[in-house]
Design brief:
It is a single chain. 35% of the residues lie in helices and 32% in strands. The strands form 4 sheets. Strands 1, 4, 6, 7, 8, 12, 14 and 15 form an 8-stranded antiparallel β-sheet that branches. Strands 9-10-11 form a 3-stranded antiparallel β-sheet, with no helix packed on it. It has 2 domains: 28 residues; 174 residues, Glucose Permease (Domain IIA). It is of the alpha+beta class. The protein is globular and about 50 Å long. It has 4 helices and 15 strands. The structure holds zinc ion.
């Protein structure tokens, strides 16, 4: 084998390796750019809205157990899946509250979401999964019924923000009691954490304006930290 032919063979095999790593990179990163673009647009819309009367969607908050976006599959392996909402852990039986005033457009109980409810508020759609109870039909109307929790919600019903619409359960695909909370704006999935952040800062600003002691307190804090920095020199 001549020296020259050997070099060609090495060059060829490294090209194959390079090609393989590009292919695996592409499969590992499934279209994140497109999702980000959608988020950026809707985030701006979210911040321009007023959510002073909006409610955190669950009582007895424990932890955020899974965020919005791409994550490694819960069933293991190298698969990625899109998690379309925010998982909020709370003890089983904790009440779930409607995030915002709206109309119940769907109740259901036969998929991965378990017993669930979808509420429409203008362009916004909020979904609550893994609830207790089941769907019952009476006189042609569908209801989400959780008798032990005193819950009966009909499709088409108007719901005020903060209204108790169900309780945390383990129906559907779940390993522990939590609320899977999904948000859509004009049919695009939105990161619920971003919306909660905007909502909290709006509510905090409104509260801060009502209490004049806040600016004084922060002025004191700034003075103190200035002194600490000066003494260090
Ligand atoms: Zn979830």
């Amino acid at each position: 084998m001549s020296h020259r032919r050997q070099r060609v063979a090495i060059y060829g095999s490294s090209l194959v390796v390079l090609g393989l790593s590009i292919v695996s990179l592409i499969t590992l990163l499934p279209k994140p750019a497109k999702v980000k673009a959608t988020q950026a647009n809707t985030k701006q819309t979210a911040i321009s809205k007023s959510w002073l009367a909006a409610s955190f969607p669950v009582e007895n908050f424990q932890a955020y157990t899974s965020g919005f976006g791409y994550r490694r599959s819960a069933t293991g392996g190298n698969n990625w899946e899109f998690h379309s909402g925010l998982d909020i852990a709370a003890p089983e039986g904790s009440y779930i509250r409607s995030w915002w005033t709206g109309t119940v457009i769907k109740v259901g109980d036969h998929n991965a979401c378990g017993t669930h409810i979808v509420i429409q508020s203008g362009e916004w759609q909020h979904t609550y999964c893994h609830m207790q109870g089941e769907v019952e039909t009476a006189y042609g109307r569908r209801y989400l019924v959780d008798r032990a929790g005193g819950i009966q919600i009909a499709e088409g019903q108007q719901i005020p923000g903060g209204y108790r619409i169900g309780r945390v359960g383990m129906t559907g695909r779940t390993t522990g009691p939590h609320l899977h909370w999904g948000l859509k704006y004009s049919n695009n999935y939105i990161d619920p954490a971003a919306v909660l952040q905007a909502m909290f800062s709006q509510q905090q600003l409104a509260r801060g304006a009502a209490s004049p002691s806040n600016p004084k307190q922060s002025a004191v804090t700034i003075e103190e930290s200035k002194n600490v920095r000066d003494s260090g020199d």
